[in-house]
Each structure stands twice: as structure tokens, then as C-alpha cells.
Amino acid sequence: MERDNIIHFVFDKIFNQLILSNDEFYQIPFSKIREKTFDNIYVHKLIHQLTNKSEKSIKLYLTNNYFITNHLYSKLKLHKYVKIIMNDILENTFDLNCLKLAMLNRDIEIVQQIIPFIKLDNELLMIPAEMGNEKIYFYLINLGLNPNISVYHKAILGNSAEIVKSIIPLISLSKVILESAFQNNNTEILLMIIDEIVKENIKMKNEIVSYPILNGNMIIVKKLEEFNLIDWLSETICFSAILSGSLTILYYVESKNPNIHNNFYLDKTNHKKSPLLFDEITYFLNGNKYYAHTMNYAIQSGSIEMVRYIYNLGYGITESNIITAIKSNLKEILIFLLHNYTGKLHDSILNYFGITSFINDKIELAKILIMNEKINIIPTHKFTLSDYQRDRLHVNMINESKTIFENDMMDPDYLMKYHIFFSYTKRFDLDLDLKLITRIRLALELNKDDILNKLITIEQNDNNRQIITDAIFLFGNLNHILKWAYIYNLAPSNLLIMELICYQQLGKLCYIYSRNLLPISKWKELHKLSQMIADPTIEDFFYKYNLTSKQKLKYIIQSGKKDLIMKWIRTKSKEEVNEKIKKNIKNLLLLNDSQLIKDIYPEFNFDNIEEILKI
């Protein structure tokens, strides 16, 4: 299989954003990691959009076992780990990580093969408990391991009623186990847990009891009702019914609490938002102020039917509701809200379409707002101090958000870390720079030449001129660059040019060269780094315009191109080869080609591989 460093580079960047730590290999089955990365259709499409390589060729490359094996080796560093994951023949040396990988990815026979080499600990039960793997779990139990509270918790998540049933007589319920059981919504397990609740006379909190309503599990709802464990008048129960997205569930709760919507009491409480945001979260009916909580829960349910039902009951729509629909990427609901919302939206809403706000498909969401004339790409009025303060609040809320939902990880801004290309700006942590990037990007996406003309031709400081230039090169196509980049006649940042090289975006590189935007010395520096890519098309560009630099073994090895490594070696003395190879042995080992190392460095002792790769 011929190595394609363009696909390789872009995929590795994406992989590192989706799998944030190698610890994940020892916590979840590789099948889930593979589904999220190598087999992910969205990943294939994104690489296609960036590099213009066909989706078919990208898919074939990323799902090839040879590529997957080598990629795993570059992450895990040891063949024995990769072999367990890839169902290959095992070695005879095992460690604890081998056992964890085997329990996650292989059958019980492999686990039995590894067990004699490992010191057993009760914590090992957690993996098969969470996997719901009864064979491995009870095999370990028979070896003398005993479950503890942590194992109990994992078993609740693992959906094996048999494992949970075996633990219940041994360990009492805890708050964490109760909450996890009700969240996980396994009916068979919950029925056993409820029996224990009744037996131990445990007082249930509304927050825990609300999960079966949220999950639409009427079997459990009826069981809880049988033991009088549900407070039907609780706001938590009402909001959970709305959040379930099931009108059947909501009708049932309404039948138990007929006054649930009287005087819109669900919207009477302020949940301690900043006074600056009151306009966004409040609406008025009959002269009374209300806070739009109920509509927010309906939106978060993801059900357009629920949103329509709540709206038809008379509940109001506010700007905060529209932000919720944007953050949840709910286009149909967003369109409904916009059609029933009067007035314009505040300019601060643009922050949710910026490069540090990770929402999948957010540019399409922005287009919906713009086409419905609810926002302007350029503000139509001069900002007041209150406007700036409100803007800052939204930027802070976005930046302080610690959780990125799995679907939002597919946002290209997250996967490709676009924010790093603008980290040179002096005020990057302020909303002005971020919003300028967003305005330029939206104008490019919508081909709004009038807006681009205004943004580019008004007087801008040097910082903003560089921001605009980089945004045009990153988010625009070649036609956009030909049309607008000449006005400032600036080169994009070196970091961004290197990214364009890695995407094989040759047209943009040719424009930069033809306009003489970079000195030759800078091109030569870029060529030195581009040796890691070693892409023939990119190399032709540098050679054609005499922009090449001296080859560096470190980068040639990182390219993974064995023919180029051998070509470099043939031009050097044996002494120089040995000296350079010693310095770069770790990168050579990561190529996963022992024969290559034997050919060029016969003295190497392969017994030291593990120690070298740990460095």
C-alpha cells in the first residue's frame, strides 16, 4: 500500500481530536473507536472537502488494515497491543494493558491465555461488568475476584441483568448507583433496583425518579407509581415529560397534574441569569413577565411536535430559545421558532457561529437566520456599552463550556483546530477578532460581495487586515482569493500556508508565489517542513520555482517514504548515516518496519524498543 501523506496528515489531526488520550484504547472496545474515526463517513467527507481527493479513495485508504495497524502502532508503541486489537497472533509476553485490551476486544480464550501472566485485582471486574460480558465476568469471579462498589456501578452501565443480579445481595445501593441505573434505563435492571428501594425503604429524589419519564419508560413509571414514589406536582417531573419529546408521556403527566399549565407557572421562576440577558430569556403575556424555560425544554427534546404543542398552549418564544435550537443543531425547530418570533436578534448571536463555538453544521444554521432576515452579518447600528457587555457574556459562556457533545466533535472548527491559525492576534480573547473572522466567513459562504467589500475596504488596522487575509485563504476558494486578496496584498501566516501545503491546495500556493507575497527564504523554510508530507505534487511546485531547501533526515523519516529514506542514505557516508540514524531512531521505529532498520542500521538492538519508545 503506497503511503498518502496528505490523507495521513489530515486524518491524524482529526484522530487526535476525536481520541483525546490513548487511555481510551483501554476503556472502550476498538470497534467503537474505529467507527468514530477510520470508518466515519463524515471524516471521509471532510478530508475530501479539504484535499479534493475522492471520498472513495479516502475510505479505501483509511479502512485498509495495513494503514490501521500502522496508525495504531504509532499511538500504542508496542506490537503486542496492536496484535490484540487487530486479532493477530499473540506474543508470549503480556502485561496488564494486554489483559484490558483482550477483555475489551477478544473472546474469553484469549483472556484465559493472558491471565496466568497477570497479578489479579478486583478492579479487573470493572471492564467485563461495563461491557456486559458475562463469560469473562463470571470467569474472573470463579478465579476468586470479588465485586466492589465501583464494579457495581460499571455493571449498572453494562446492561447485563445477570451480573447485576449477582451483585445486589452483596452491596447496598448508593446515590451514584441509583442515578446511573435510572439514567441508563434498562427495564429489567430497574425492576430489580426498585425492589431493593422498597425493601430498604430508600427515599427517592424527584431528579432520579424523573429519568423514566424523560426516557419514556412507562413500565417503570407505572412501577414507581405503584409504590407512590412519584411527586406528580414537581416541576422536575413536568419538565422531564416535556424533555422526553413524547406527547404521550406529557399527556400522562398532565392527567396527574391537570393544573400544570395554569398561569404558565412553569415559567415564573428566574434561574439566576445576568440582568444583561433578561431581554433574551423573558417574554410578556397580559402584562406579566415570564422566563422561557418551558419552550427551552421542548426545544431540547428535539421534537418539533412537542415545540408546536407548547407554543400552541401559549408559551412564549425568546432569543434564548433560538440560541438553544442553534446549539442543538435543530434546523426544523429553528425555522419554526424564527417564523413565530417577532423582531431582530441581537448581534451577539453571531458568536455561536465562530471558530471557538463547536456546533456541527453551524454555517447552515447561520444561513437560516440570515435568509430569514433575523440577523445581519454587519451590524446596522453603533454598539453601546451594554451591547459590548452582552457580547462579552456570550463569548464567556461559549469559552467556559467544558463539554463537547459527540455530534459537535464533527464541527470542522474543532477537528481541524482552526483557532490556532489566528492565535497571533493581540486581542484574540476578545469578541471583536472572533466576530470579524465569523463575518468574513459567512460573507464568503453566502457569496455576499457587498458585505465583503464593506469589511475589506473600510479602514482596518494591521491586526484586522491580517485576520481578514487569513480568513479569506482558509475559508475562501481560489475565486474568492483572486477577487479579494489583492486589496491588502498580504501573505497568510506561515502556519496557515503550511496547512494549505498539507491540504495540497496548490492553487492558493501558486497565488501567493505569483503575487510575490513571501520572500524566497520563507519558502525555503516551508519546503524544509513540507518534506514531512513528501507529496509529489507539492514537491513539483517547490522544484518548479526553485524554492527547495536542503533535505533533513528527521523530516524525511517522518514522511514514512522508505524510498526517500534509502535515497538520502545512498548519498551519505556510513559514519554520517549511523550518527543521524541514532538521533532519529525513535521516528524510525514508529514506521513499524524492522527490516528497514536492519538494512540501514544493522547494529541496532531490538531488545530496547520499549524503552526507546517511552522516551
TrEMBL record:
Provide the species name: viral metagenome
SUPFAM superfamilies reported in the protein's UniProt record:
Ankyrin repeat (SSF48403)
Q: What is this protein called?
A: Ankyrin repeat protein
